[in-house]
Design goal:
The complex is a heterodimer of chains A (270) and B (461). Chain A has 270 residues and is mainly alpha-helical. Chain A has 14 helices and no strands. Chain A starts with a helix and ends with a helix. Chain B is of the alpha+beta class and 461 residues long. In chain B, β9 and β10 form a beta hairpin. In chain B, α1 runs parallel beside α3, α2 packs antiparallel against α15 and α15 runs parallel beside α16. The chains are: A mainly alpha (270), B alpha+beta (461). Chains A and B meet through α2, α6, α12 and α13 of A and α1, α2, α3, α12 and α13 of B.
Chain lengths: 270, 461
Amino acid sequence: MIRTFLSYALLTVGSIIVAFPLLMALSYSLMSESQIATFPPPILPTRPTLNNYADVLDTIPIGRYLLNSFVVSTAVVIGQLFTASLAAYAFSFLVFRGRQVLFFLFLSTLMIPWEATIIPNYMTIRTIGWLDTYQGLAVPFMATAFGTFLLRQAFLQIPRELWDAARIDGASSLRFFISTVIPLSRPILGTVAIYGFLSTYNQYFWPLLVTNQTFMRTTQVGIAQLRFEETLRFGLVMAGVVMVAVPTLALLVLGQRQLVRGLTAGAVKG
Amino acid sequence: MRRLATLALALTMVAAACGGTSPTGTAPTGGTDMSALAPAKDVAPAASITWWHAMSGVNGEAINKIVAGFNSSQSKIKVETVFQGNYDDLLAKLNTAIASNAAPALVQVYDIGQAYMRDSGQVVPMQAFIDRDKFATSDFEPAVINYYKYQDKLQSMPFNSSSSMLYYNKDAFKEVGLDPNKPPVTFTEVADAAKKLTKKDASGQTTRYGFGPSVYGWLFEQLMATSGALYADNGNGRDNRATKVVWNSAAGKAILDWWKAGVDGGYFFNPGIDNDGAANAFNAQKTAMYIESTARLRGHINTVAGKFEIGTGLYPRPDNKPKEGGNIIGGASLYIMKSRPPAEQQAAWEFVKYAMTPAVQGQWQADTGYYPIAKAAYDTGPSKEWATKYPQFLTAVTQIRESAQNRMTSGAVLGVMPQARQRTQKMIESVLLGQATSQAALDAAVTEMNAAIDKYNKANP
């Protein structure tokens, strides 16, 4: 009993610490500017106000930005899952000449800083006329070396015997991939998906670079628009942050259930 | 400002990539007429041009207001605005765009991007249009336009300009028996007032500091200017390209020693490299005085309304109040890009002329709190209304009007100005934290920056 109580107390404290920045953002978003500017810094709003939220809606078309971010992030996730799982499958189950070399070559692209490829990527996108389009925002990120690596390591955990059995039963390579490898790897696919989604959702510089029209911009560019050059309105920025963070949090909560289910499914079957 | 280091790196890379196309060495000197660089006068302006800017929020709305006014004032040219993130992001995006020939006709670039823009060779100097059209700039605020001159030629058109001043809490002044209408001006006066304004509670904890400037490189540049000292050689890089920085002078040392003594004595608050933190400390009455941009005035007054009264004073300066000292302006200016066809350059110039008219400038001041560039703007209705609402702004105007106009008060132009600003911040911080003596920190920073300047100048011959 005491033990349960203690561990719950510990977990509560831990979760408060982890959630603190988020809770502060929420609290600040409900405060007026003059309340924020008091010392010592207040924790809770004395007279909660929704003015900051109204101002965000007045300042930027946040609904459109959220839609754009969702479309782009979802497209990237689908693209990444498709390319990375097929590549990882080749690198883990198919035996071909130069596989190892190719794989290390593949991995070495992780070492190229993204900054070094911005200008060439931009020029490519511009040449094919993809500025201000969803494909311009999404396509450059549809292949991922990191995701491929992650999936390959997971695929290697799948017992070789399954592969042998499938082959004996006459399953083709693709059939084995679809019917066995993918269902067994749901948790790791979920990880790659969430990682891909969040990193695309949080992108700032690339969307800024390839879009010029307001209606094609994404949420992070929108948040930047709430920061004025000479004065910073904390409440306004925090209201924007909360509005942008809520959908991703919801997704994470939903995704987590999926993740856990995937984990147990694998455990029982494997 | 945090991203400056990465940006600087990117800039150097791009600068190296574009090297060799720079026309800097051939820039005309003295009284040469530059009109040849502009398109011929009879070129018909393009039907539409794009303008990249970095203004968001109320300032962004003020920009859209100007553009809407221009578009409806005539039927030939349509200007479209695009917000491209903050100043750093905009410049980074501009660099990428230049590399693939996608730059717009008109861009707003911040003060410290000046030398970089010139060295890039991508700009038609504003002076070319001014010379061609015999456009009168005599009514323009000298302190403002001098900042954007190289070899006495205007490179870009100042657009949003501010300078720095002293902000103080009048109520706190009254409370400790200081005259609330006589703010301190010299280093000693500021220190003395700060000592009086500092308050401790029973346990010895400081509840209010007298003075709390952010460790901000721009403030150091301003202090050098009010000290009447050069920041870089070759007339602060305005007679010729600067080859070294010279802030490790007696003036530089005096500034650091004053700052350090205040922090050590416990009457200066040190918020660190944090401009918003310093502003908030002042709003929250944790500090009774601080120095910042004149453009923050409206934000401060609105935030502290009903809590205390804000006063403004001249920017601090050495005790002997050097006659050659004064304030540098900051902000951003408009550049017409060379890579666009002459018709677009022409259209951009038409818009710039419109934006400089007193009526537009007066409205711009009222909407944003930046200085109007045309002096006649102060006689317009919106500007007068604004002055009644924010009488504290008068200090800002007096201050730049009374500044001596020379190389020291025009401020430094360096290709590596963003890095220099960052380096001075590191330098100030190391002194305040007691990691180095003031002279050692100054010398170390200067040596490091000179190497960076050398590298930049070699990459952009």
